[in-house]
Each structure stands twice: as structure tokens, then as C-alpha cells.
Amino acid sequence: QVQLVESGGGLVQAGGSLRLSCAASGSICCINVMGWYRQAPGKQRELVATITNGGDTVIADSVKGRFTISRDNAKNTVSLQMNSLKPEDTAVYYCNYRDYTRGFLNWGQGTQVTVSS
Predict the structure, then answer these.
(1) Triad 5, 39, 73: Cα angle to 5°
(2) Residues of 101-111 as b/e, b for ≥16 C-beta within 10 angstroms?
(3) pLDDT surpasses 90 at 30
């Protein structure tokens, strides 16, 4: 299994920027994908962005052009640079690690992002 610790959330005004980071530790190997999901109050958790250990990315349409996901395989970290933030980006953001070779999925504890109008 893999342990994930997120950091970087907070309160920002609309139009501002935040950078989220997620540090992974444990049994990291093989074919895997790390990503960011978010869950707003009363809504289902939704994909924000994912990146494979080969660098392939998937970005949700709602954040495309504003958010960028990156990964440092040597440090086992994944980051989410969020620019031009909107109030609708307010949510708890979760980091996850999906191991396709060994077939498991781990989640971080989440970090709150609040965008004020």
C-alpha cells in the first residue's frame, strides 16, 4: 500500500492561485497513476487531473487551461498548480494513487480549498 499526504490548500480570492502537493510513501512501483479529485459539499467526488508515471495526463474540462498537474517520480510527489481560481473550485481536494500492476487504490486525507468571490 501507499500513504499519501496532501498539503497546500487554503483560502484564496477568485482569480488567485494555489499549488497543492501530495507526497507518497510506501510501496511505489510498477504501472501507476497519481491524481487529484475533489468533492464539494453535497456533490460527488470528481476527477480533476491524473498523471501516469510515464507522464501522460488527463485534465477535466472544467479546469483545463487553468490547472496543471505535474509529477516528480524521483521524489514520489504529484502537484496541482491551480490558477484563475473560481468560487466553484471550492472543494476538498484528494490525492490518490492507483496501482494497475498490483490492483489497489489509496487516497490521501484531503485538503480544503476555498475560493471566495
Answers:
(1) 35
(2) eeeeebebebb
(3) no
